Amino acid sequence: DIASDLLSLSSLSGKRMKGMYTLSNVTADTLVVATYEASPAPVTYAITASVEGGHGKVSPSGLVTCIQGSNQAFYFIPDAGYQVASVTVDGQAVEASSSYTFYDIQAAHNLAVSFKVQVTPGPVNPLDPLVKQLTRTGDTPLVVWIGLIAIFAGAVVVAVMIARRPRSRHEYSGSQARSRRSVKQANRSDRTIHKR
């Protein structure tokens, strides 16, 4: 009856409910009144993303509003001929990569990125890793010995190449002419001896 229905509803009076409520065993007209209220606004935090010194941009940039507990990624886009130099979060340096992501945001943050001229690597010297390793371990005398051995080996190779190189026609003709002159001079000496 209405009295029992009102009694069951009175226990719900003043309570917040979500979803739906089902009246059971309805035997007469029943009045149900529901009151709605606005959901509380989500808690948000601001992340300020900026570029120091120019030569690129960050996306998104400026003041970015993030809902509490959410994640937010930022991407660093250098101008042509530039690369990421440094990234700081709340004044602390982090890895200088092409992006940075805040996870489970629970506070406001400041993000700053700077760019530098892109460095083009030069030719690779195969001895560089060895020299760096030896220098790092403090074996400087060994480095000196390796250098001296390399110089000596280079000098030997050059000497062998010079000794084995073929002689030019000019060199052969010059030596042949000298040999002919020597033979003529010897013949003249022999004639002089015979005349005496």
Textual characterization of the structure:
The protein is rod-shaped. A hairpin with a 2-residue loop joins strand 5 and strand 6 (92-94). The longest helix is centred in the last third of the chain and has 27 residues, at 169-195. The protein has 4 helices and 8 strands; from the N terminus they run H-E-E-E-E-E-E-E-E-H-H-H. The chain is of the alpha+beta class and 196 residues long. The relative contact order is 0.09. It has helices at 2-10, 128-136, 140-164, 169-195; strands at 44-52, 56-59, 62-67, 72-78, 82-89, 92-94, 99-102, 109-117. Helix content is 36%, strand content 26%.
Produce the secondary structure layout.
Elements: H1 2-10, E1 44-52, E2 56-59, E3 62-67, E4 72-78, E5 82-89, E6 92-94, E7 99-102, E8 109-117, H2 128-136, H3 140-164, H4 169-195
Parallel strand pairs: 1-8
Antiparallel strand pairs: 1-3, 2-4, 4-7, 5-6, 5-8
User: Would you report the number of β strands?
Assistant: 8
Order of secondary-structure elements? HEEEEEEEEHHH
Biggest sheet strand order reads: 3-1-8-5-6
Q: Total helix count?
A: 4
The computed structural class is alpha+beta
Radius of gyration: 47 Å
- Please tell me what the overall shape is: rod-shaped
What share of residues is helical? 25-40%
What average pLDDT do the residues reach? 75
Poorly predicted tracts of residues? 1-7
| Beta-strand content bin | 25-35%
